[in-house]
Amino acid sequence: MGTIKYQQLKRILDIIFSLFAITLISPVFLIVIILIKIFDPGPIVFKQERIGQNEKTFLIYKFRTMIVNADKLGPSLTQKEDNRITKLGSFLRKTSIDEFPQFFNILKGEMSLIGPRPEVPSIVKTYTDEHKKVFIVKPGITGWAQIHGRDDLTIEEKAVFDLEYVNKISFLLDMKIFFYTFPVLLFAKGIKY
User: Fold this and answer.
1) Each residue of 108-120: pLDDT tens digit?
2) Most CB atoms closer than 10 Å: which of 28, 67, 95, 177?
3) Domain residues for 26?
4) How many structural domains comprise the chain?
5) pTM of the model
6) Distance CA 84, CA 127 (A)
7) Measured between alpha carbons, how far is 117 from 81 in angstroms, rounded to an integer?
8) Spatial separation of the C-alpha atoms in residues 32 and 150, rounded to whole Å
9) Could you tell me if residue 127 is inside a domain?
10) Is 49 left (phi over 0), alpha (psi -120 to 50) or beta?
11) How far apart are CA 180 and CA 190, in angstroms?
């Protein structure tokens, strides 16, 4: 199957899976919305500028996991043991539930289920021309880099996996990433070869 035809098929699969996922996890959406409002009143959804396919800017959606105005109280990128992260937020991050609103990014056509994670503009400014090849494809909720290390990878290591994905993109590779994502989420460890 050619790359263009696969990208068209992938878009159809993304829409079908996202609609199914949103329907299936709608009770989780409701519970999280209530808990955020109870434990840390403020916006439910956090929106942040990211760089997507063809270097277009879009707003990524996440459940808010940090205190209100966290960006004014510390660095723009979160760090380990960041005291701006709420207790509920810590749980949402560990379980990746905070990423669930990104199914709406997929429906809007800004993201795919599988692809390189979209980065903030400040990090994209450091990309080499080679690394910018990741913008050929849509960014994803999960990807080749994520199943190898989640938050344990350096920006350089992540770039290697992202470029490997772009160069080898296929239905079989996407299926492999999809099925490896679940044990990686459960055990919070990337796969090892």
Assistant:
1) 999 999 999 999 9
2) 177
3) 3-187
4) 1
5) 0.87
6) 28
7) 22
8) 23
9) yes
10) beta
11) 9
